[in-house]
């Protein structure tokens, strides 16, 4: 049941991202398409490892989406941005679409966490912090491999 819902959520994410491309180059289009094709694919090598990677990609990209929404909301709604009716309508549409897409991504993460045992075992708070620190380490601080 959750697998079917997750597939539909991935399709909805693809649709939101495709519409969002009207005002921004949206990496979520590729992310949701990738998720749709690998989540239940019998051809995926090492499915548990791929699911864990996918869950982390969704989690970290949620932070990027949140920052994007905050930045562009303040810029597009600010007084220094030239506003025409067309721009205002398009940008408002894309901002709201991205808010809904961020909520959809949160629901996706929750369902992935509840559905896949390997994700629940590898996405503890301490593991999320450690993986984030390892992924974003610079130079000599960077570990030889990421834990997944």
Written description of the protein model:
There is one protein chain. The longest helix has 31 residues, at 85-115. It contains six helices and no strands. The chain starts with a helix and ends in a 13-residue tail after the last helix. It has helices spanning 2-20, 28-39, 47-76, 85-115, 117-122, 125-135. The protein is mainly alpha-helical and 148 residues long.
List keywords for this structure.
148 residues, mainly alpha, 74% helix
Helix and strand topology:
Blueprint: H1 2-20, H2 28-39, H3 47-76, H4 85-115, H5 117-122, H6 125-135
Helix pairs in contact: 1-2, 1-4, 2-3, 3-4
Largest sheet: none
One letter per element, helices H and strands E, the order comes to HHHHHH
As a whole number of angstroms, the C-alpha radius of gyration is 17 Å
Structural class estimated from helices and strands: mainly alpha
Q: What integer is the average pLDDT? A: 82
Quaternary arrangement of the chains shown?
single chain
Strand fraction equals: under 5%
Shape: globular
- Helical proportion? over 70%
> Distance N terminus to C terminus?
27 Å
Structure annotation, total helices: 6
Low-confidence stretches: none
Number of strands: 0
